[in-house]
Amino acid sequence: MNRSIIAAKGENGLYIIPEMANRHGLIAGATGTGKTVTLQVLAENFSRIGVPVFMANEKGDLSRISCPVKKNKKIEERIKTIGMSGFVFDGNPVTFWDVYGEQGHPVRTTISEMGPLLLSRLLNLNDTQTGVLALVFKIADDDGLLLLDLKDLISLVRHIGENSKLFEPEYGRISSASIGAIQRKLVTLDTEGGDIFFGEPALNLDDFLQTDSDGNGVINILAADKLMQ
């Protein structure tokens, strides 16, 4: 790719070279200075050169990128002022995502795919409890049990706790105190809405790397208003 991407334009244009776009960047400014529009312009330009984009939509205004903007005097004056040629009002290929499944496709994963280490961090387990949770996953693997959602894991942890003596010859001592702590934290996560995130179909990261029939990169927008709360 050798096409420069315009990020902003005043008296002179500010461009990004696509090959350099893997660098970190920061868009900052006071309210009303154009941060959101700058993000939209970048996303649109990456999409047009076939690069899929992912954005977290905290305030809800990024979703407008999916539809063509209606002509109005202010925009037409701006186009004339900065001398943009070949400008057209057009929408963009967009896929909406939402962990809660309310404002877009649900974002889910299974307990098995998350694994014991990430899950132990999510539950804020100590080293002993993390070791016991790893044993739970090992027992599930050895018995061919697929852990899909929180209810699966809660049931298995309870079963292992009630029958710990049967597992200890092969897996070592299983602390009843750690089992109890894990159960309490899993129940808390479940009652706080964590069950929404775990289940099938699990998200495939390739879903974020799509192009449309015209070769434009799909812009993935995650509804993040409730997540921020």
Description:
The strands form two sheets. The protein has a four-stranded parallel beta sheet with strand order 3-6-4-5. The protein has a two-stranded antiparallel sheet with strand order 1-2. Helices cover 41% and strands 11% of the residues. The protein is α/β, with parallel strands linked by helices and 229 residues long. It has helices at residues 35-48, 73-82, 111-123, 127-142, 150-162, 164-171, 176-191, 225-228; strands at residues 5-9, 13-16, 53-57, 94-98, 105-106, 219-223. A hairpin with a 3-residue loop joins β1 (5-9) and β2 (13-16). The model has no long low-confidence stretch (mean pLDDT 88). The two termini are 39 Å apart.
Can you count the beta strands? Answer: 6
* Separate helix tally: 8
Shape: elongated
The share of residues in extended strands comes to 5-15%
The residue fraction in helices comes out at 40-55%
